[in-house]
Request: fold
Amino acid sequence: MPQTNEMTLAELDALVAEKVMGWHHYANFMEGDYEGSYPDDYPCFALTSDGVCVWTGEGDTEFWSPTKRWSDAGRVIERMRELGWLLKFLACEDYVDYVEDEWSAYFKNPETFASVGATCATTPTLALILAALAAVTGERYSVREE
Reply:
């Protein structure tokens, strides 16, 4: 069984921004200066103590949390579609060791028929993000308590 990488929700959000969305990590970010320092390459992001801050261009900033918000998770679904993956949700009860009230998601590549990322999570957005990371990186991730 492959090793699972444990990350906080904010770290998972940042990893999705980089690996799935293809955004650049803004390493010269000054903590707390969301409006005062602007990167040169848009869109890009920085992992802050407040979460993942994304610059979309023209100095616009927003906080990004696809593990928690459907509006951000929807952008991940659209990006995965651009990459050739289709999203499927399942009830975790379809698995032998299921946990009630959990969600499972996986991505299927219609060209290769590969299915990647079937995993159970406490929310549908988190299941989606874990599945997207598994599909794009080939690695498994889980949530580490913050």
User: Anything to note?
Assistant: The chain has one domain: 4-139. The CA atoms of residues 90 and 104 lie 5 Å apart. The chain has a mean pLDDT of 80.
